[in-house]
Amino acid sequence: MSRFATCLIRPGTAVAGLGLLFAACVPEWPAPPPSRVDVVTDTLHGVEIEDPYRWLEDQDSPETRDWIAAQNAYANEIVSDAALRTRIEERFGELMDVPAVSAPRAAGDHEIFTVRRKGELQARIVRRPKPDGDPTGERPDPDADYEVLVDAQALGFDDYASPGIVDISPDGSLLLFSIRDGGLDEISVRLLDLETLEERPDRLPEALYGTVAFDGEGEGFYYVHRSREEGPRARFHRFGTPAAEDEEIFGEGYGPETFLRLEEIEDGRWLLLDVQHGWMRNDILVMDRATGEVHPILEGERAHAGARYEDGRLLLRTDLDAPLYRVVEIPTDGVPLPDWSDRSRWRDWIPEQDHLLRDYATIAERTYVELLDDVASRILVFEAGEDGAPLQPVDEVPLPDHHTATLSSLGDDGAILTLASFTVPTTRYRLDLETFERERIEPPHPDYDGSDVVVEQIWYTSKDGTEAPMYIMRPRGAALDGSLPTLLHGYGGFNVSVTPSFRAQAAVWVEAGGVFAVATLRGGSEFGEGWHRAGMLENKQNVFVDFISSAEWLIANGYTHPDRLAIMGGSNGGLLVASSFTQRPELFRAVYCGFPDLDMVRFFTFTETNNMPALLEYGNGGIPEQFEFLRQYSPYQAVEDGVAYPAVMFTQGDLDTRVPPLQARKMAARVQAATSSGLPVILRYNPRAGHAGGRSRIPDRAMDTAFLMMQLGMTLGPEGQGSAPERE
User: Fold this and answer.
1) What is the DSSP code (8-state) at residue 29?
2) pLDDT tens string 568-577
């Protein structure tokens, strides 16, 4: 494909002499395929909203399917550097195509786990005889010969389908397993007899499910069916009976904006129920199975809570009256259920700390508490106080800087420490709880040498004065002269913490001479519930302002320049990058926007997806006051004709039943028609992909990365080394 080099200076781009003109000199790209304009005008709360591509919402129409095929052909024409794509794919294969084994679960005389060997696209469910001796924490060898219990392809599915272990019966004789077909959130659930290795007729059809778990008596299993119209309903299936006769035991009155989890406690005497209202709050309740009576423990509060039942007490990890979380102990042994909600009987078991309390594990006589301190893990050791006083910190497990760490029990007095960072893939250690010496159980996968990579954490200031951290990876010795091709990532929402982890894309990007940055944004949970609330509903614009401010920091401090800066995000992160490039198009050269929410004004009408709980996070355009703040930033409505937008790659798939794929289709057409920059806007669309799978295969990741590298003028050599072109 021949292209003529043309030079342009996008509005707002600072140019200090000819040295900065290189990145503004861009090739002429072929025009995108045409998209028919057929304006539909809605009037919401007295405001007219025009939609020129409503016809693309019809996913199955022949016209839409032809349009998708043309978009995919165009995307391949644009990402045309076959050598670069091949080299990235090879390097990703080295870093991503590694064996994977899940933690074994006991099943009578056997252990059951999933295994995916190198070169395989999906895992299989297998088993082996239970090993003799004390537990060591070592995972099974992925290359050993195991008895295969479930292979989705052997059941007639294609290689996009994946099986999962759902539950194992208490006596180890039965296995509940799931099949996820492509990227659907929906799964089917089947029952395997582990003695005969034959499937039983008791099964759940493809649908949305929450908890699916055996009861303790061996009579059947509980499950939560999530209806998009009615909401979640807990049911009990008795073995050998038709599913139509399943008893509905809980859920009436809860709508589709809620999730439901349940757990048997006290040998099935009670059911512990967790009703999650979007990502805003939780209700914790207990049901007496004998009478069906439900007793609230925590209900109607603007608070999150997660419950554990152990040793005659209920433990709640909650941000009720503790924005950074605490663990509350509720004595239950011999106490009538109605009295469990009496807060005069509650006591702080682990008090709120100075940093976010993420998790805890009790091993022997001590409790190990994971904190998130400036977006890195710390693990404090707590011991019981005197006369019923709260636990007190007495020690700390030494951890390396800038890591995410978890600790789990290994027998009565041992532990497994799992560490991950930007330059070290997830690695598991056996930890001596007396000396804190650790012994690596198995080598990290993949084998990656990050010694030539500098990882630093800086703090940037957002527009309103809020300070936030940002992690930066860069090649050791790289000069901060404003020329480094930089890829900035963010999420910012749904109470999610984005912590250090190994990312193959980041590793390859830095090997090619670039900078990879991860900005901490409001809307996550990194600094507690106040941080989350500052980036949701009417405060969502704060998230975009934070991200834009982090980009400006990178430019002001000599890392990069707007024409060397790319941004990427998926799902809620797709909304993030779309809002950012529509609000500040001159700030970015290239954008990856994956599986995104984009039409926030009409999001509340997309009832064919399961993401109604997101209305409690984003807002509901059907409510006048929420419509007002949604239309201020909704990316689809924010696109303006004649604006010089960056190069953009959208990705999506037919089987996304969480984020409506119609949004990416419409947005791609809209930006293609509107942009005046001459830079390409493409849509890569996979009919088998969705939010829950089928979207992270190595060739797909290689194409995403090749698009961004091509736009920033980067190369990648045969040994993983690359360079950005010199500025002229």
Assistant:
1) P
2) 999 999 999 9
Same domain, 536 and 471: yes
**Confidence band (pLDDT; 50, 70, 90) for 1?**
very low
Total residue length of the chain: 728
Residues 420, 426: Cα–Cα separation, whole Å: 4
**Considering the domain boundaries, does residue 440 fall inside one?**
no
Q: Answer yes or no: is 357 within a domain.
A: no
Q: For the segment 596-648, what is each residue's pLDDT rounded down to a tens digit?
A: 999 999 999 999 889 999 999 999 999 999 999 999 999 999 999 999 999 99
Asked if residue 559 and residue 515 are part of one domain, the reply reads yes
Three-state secondary structure call for residue 222: strand
Contact 328, 315 (CB under 8 A): yes
The separation between CA 170 and the C-alpha centre of its own chain, rounded to angstroms, equals 31
**How many structural domains is the chain composed of?**
2
CA 69 – CA 662 distance, rounded (Å): 15
My answer on whether 590 and 688 are in the same domain is yes
State the pairing for strand pair 565-570/590-594: parallel
Instruction: Collect all residues with Cβ–Cβ distance below 8 Å to 537 and sequence separation of at least 6.
Output: 617, 618, 619, 626, 629
Task: List Cα–Cα distances, 548 to 75, 581, 582, 589, in angstroms.
Answer: 27, 9, 11, 13
The mean predicted confidence, pLDDT, of the chain is 94
Is 524 in the same domain as 638? yes
The Cα–Cα gap between 193 and 168 comes to: 10
Torsion of CA 604, 608, 611, 612, to 10 degrees: 50
- Give the number of C-alpha atoms closer than 13 A to the C-alpha of residue 716, restricted to the C-beta side: 30
Amino acid at 95: L
- At residue 17, the pLDDT reads 30
The amino acid at residue 134 is D
What whole-number distance in Å separates Cα of residue 210 and Cα of residue 230? 14
Query: Each residue of 256-314: pLDDT tens digit?
Result: 999 999 999 999 999 999 999 999 999 999 999 999 999 999 999 999 999 999 989 99
What span, in angstroms and rounded, lies between the C-alpha atoms of 257 and 538?
A: 18
Nearest CA-CA partner of 671 in 35, 214, 205, 171: 35
217 DSSP assignment: T
Domain coverage including residue 244? 99-135+143-255
Query: 640 and 581 in one domain?
Result: yes
Asked whether residue 372 is assigned to any structural domain, the reply reads no
The residue type found at 203 is R
Instruction: Name the token pair of 144.
Output: 């050993």
Last residue of a domain, one of 255, 282, 315: 255
Please state the rounded mean pLDDT for residues 436-449: 91
466 with 590, same domain: the answer is yes
Three-state SS annotation for 474-510 = EECCCCCCCCCCEEEECCCCCCCCCCCCCCHHHHHHH
The secondary structure of the chain in percent helix, strand, coil, rounded to multiples of 5, reads 20, 35, 45
How far apart, in whole angstroms, are the C-alpha atoms of residue 335 and residue 340?
Answer: 7
pLDDT of the residue at 31: 97
- CA distance linking residue 407 with residue 391, whole number of Å: 18
Which CATH number do you get for residue 707?
3.40.50.1820
How far apart are the C-alpha atoms of 500 and 228, rounded to whole Å? Answer: 35
